[in-house]
């Protein structure tokens, strides 16, 4: 979620100005963060969940931007990690990758990238098929 409306990059009076919507930066950040090894997923809202159920991707979820005139842009990321990863290493990799991608794609330098680890998600355990289990018992009893 963004406080301001648009970001105006340095303008060239001969060619015009370049304006980037904050949602674009949120999408860049969301994709960069989700591609880091150890990230399970980003936190989403009810609206994002409904949108994904309808078949559309939501890449800006779990990202919050705060724009300050004097400091620049602060980013807060709300992330679920996979169980068993080194939380500090993954968090620092997210910070590094997000800053690099935003700088590379928009020429905007982020002031802060704050990582909020919501939860650790364990691997899914394969569930037993009860039908198959009871079929094997019946065959042994015959």
From TrEMBL:
<protein>
    <submittedName>
        <fullName>Asp23/Gls24 family envelope stress response protein</fullName>
    </submittedName>
</protein>
<comment type="similarity">
    <text>Belongs to the asp23 family.</text>
</comment>
<dbReference type="Pfam" id="PF03780">
    <property type="entry name" value="Asp23"/>
</dbReference>
<dbReference type="InterPro" id="IPR005531">
    <property type="entry name" value="Asp23"/>
</dbReference>
């Amino acid at each position: 979620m963004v406080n301001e409306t648009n970001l105006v990059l340095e303008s060239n009076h001969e060619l015009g100005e370049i304006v980037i919507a904050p949602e674009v930066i949120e999408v860049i950040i969301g994709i960069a963060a989700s591609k880091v090894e150890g990230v399970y997923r980003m936190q989403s809202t009810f609206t994002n969940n409904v949108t994904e159920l309808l078949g559309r991707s939501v890449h800006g979820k779990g990202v919050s931007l705060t724009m300050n005139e004097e400091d620049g842009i602060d980013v807060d990321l709300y992330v679920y990690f996979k169980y068993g990863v080194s939380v500090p290493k993954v968090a620092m990799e997210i910070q590094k990758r997000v800053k690099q991608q935003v700088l590379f794609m928009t020429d905007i330098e982020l002031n802060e990238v704050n990582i909020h680890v919501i939860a650790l998600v364990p691997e899914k355990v394969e569930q037993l098929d009860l039908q198959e289990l009871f079929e094997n018992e019946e065959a042994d009893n015959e």
